[in-house]
Amino acid sequence: MNLINETHDPALHSWVASANAAGCDFPVQNLPFASFRRQGSSEPFRGGVAIGDQIVDLAAVAAAGLFTGEASVAAQAGAQPQLNALMALGQPAWSALRLALSRALRAGAPEQAALRACLVPQAEAEYGLPARIGDYTDFYTSVHHATNIGKLFRPDNPLLPNYKWVPIGYHGRASSIGVSGQAFRRPQGQTFVPGATEPSFGPSQKLDIELELGIFIGSGNALGEPVPITEAEEHVFGLCLLNDWSARDLQAWEYQPLGPFLSKNFATTISPWIVTLEALAPYRVAFLRPESDPQPLPYLDSAANRQAGSLDIQLEVLLQTPAMRAQGQGGAPLVRTSYRHAYWTVAQMVTHHTVNGCNLQPGDLFGSGTLSGPTLDQAGALIELTSGGKNPVTLANGEVRSWLEDGDAVVIRGWCEQPGAARIGFGACVGTVLPARG
Ligand code: CA
Predict the structure, then answer these.
(1) Average pLDDT in the 108-115 region?
(2) For residues 308 and 3, what is the distance between their CA atoms, to the nearest angstrom?
(3) CA of 367 to the centre of ligand 1 (A)
(4) Which residues share a beta bridge with 311?
(5) What Å distances lie between residue 45 and 87, 127, 189, CA to CA?
(6) What one-character-per-residue DSSP string does 273-321 give?
(7) In the chain, is it the N or the C terminus that has fewer CB atoms within a 10 Å radius of its CB?
């Protein structure tokens, strides 16, 4: 487990002035990774690290030979178009690069002049997927979401008996994962209206969001070699924001007996920036299970997981309708919650996923599952906020929504703040719904 070290010191300031501004997502204590290039250029994508409103170009850092030792090896791996090679190097290498960048970006650092030449403004950048994602697994770790959804589908039996014992998940689709800015066509498919004699085909009428975090695997494990919970976090590179778009009408008809299929695999949007677990160290909180609930089986339990296995990440969803966009208005707040309410931790997800011998590989992605909080106004999906579409939400400008409409853009933001620690953020995850194919 990452410990607090000199890179987290809230007193640190950077010679990149924008990194010191109040409310900045990317102060010197954060240092998240992305894959980027200059907009509209034919430059190769390469790894970058956010600092204020700038990006440290890892290809330029590697070419300039600014770092030595393990940090130099990590910078060279990070110079590739996607971050898989850096992820594969393992936690000590990520940590060495973070420390070298932290020291070189601090006010008064002797590397300032050389490193300034490696900066690219974020305003001039476009982003690619941070990793080549071999496999994508979507979990279901919010007991509040599972209960809210269960009530809609099975009023008498909302939470299935396995939920409090097994971190539930299913294998998703990697090919349709896109980076923030993704626009996708409203999916078409089969739906079945209760009372009808047969299903109908057409554009989904119940298009929804799912507020999630993405978890990128760093170093993998060999096939047949489970990862014990005491080592699970060493395999996690970092976290991003994730919107698991969902067609609820397709889902209701297709999901039994094998789970979601076409209702989920048409698009998944992630934020470009991956915030490392090390950066999140100051925001750890205890993993709490009500005493009346089953406690995790021994393979899913450790002292460290109990004491500090959860993360207090603040999450927010905003919805920008076409009318708001036409009037120059940003998105209207839809929901606020925290990742701390999850029923299973990141370490438990990694351990459970591998306990049967399944091998994880660098760049694999987990979805946390919809992160609904304990009260309905903290629900991370419209299906919960609107009680299955029956109670539309009224947005700040008076517009109402039961489900997403064409042209709607959804913005997810995440950040951490706590007394005695620097505020850090995840940037934004933005996706837009286009009309169905004609
Ligand atoms: Ca999901």
Answers:
(1) 97
(2) 11
(3) 7
(4) 284
(5) 16, 8, 35
(6) -BEETTTTGGGEE-----TTSPPPPGGG--HHHHHH-EE--EEEEEEE-
(7) C
pLDDT tops 80 at residue 237: yes
The residues that are catalytic are 145
Pick the closest to residue 384 from 338, 335, 342 (CA basis): 335
pLDDT surpasses 90 at 153? no
What pLDDT digit, counting tens, does each position of 16-55 carry?
A: 999 999 999 999 999 999 999 999 999 999 999 999 999 9
pLDDT for 154: 84
Q: Determine the Cα–Cα distance for residues 342 and 211; give it in Å rounded to an integer.
A: 12
CA of 210 to the centre of ligand 1 (A): 6
Q: Look up tokens 């286009």; give the residue.
A: 434
Structure tokens, 342: 């999850």
Q: How far is the CA of 251 from the centre of ligand 1 (A)?
A: 12
Report how far ligand 1's centroid is from the alpha carbon of 207 (Å): 13
* Both structure tokens of 335: 């929901």
C-alpha distances out from residue 37 to 33, 51, 85, 179, 237, Å: 13, 16, 18, 14, 22
140 CA distance to ligand 1 centroid (A)?
7
Answer yes or no: are the C-beta atoms of 12 and 422 closer than 8 Å.
yes
Residues 142 and 100: their CA atoms lie apart, in Å, by 37
How much is the average pLDDT of 183-192? 98
Helix 69-78 and helix 91-105: axis angle, to 10°? 100
Distance CA 99, CA 279 (A): 11
The residue to which tokens 């995440």 are assigned: 414
- Chain position carrying tokens 């620690």: 421
Paired residues of 1 in beta bridges: none
Of the candidates 41, 32, 39, the residue with the CA atom closest to the CA atom of residue 123: 39
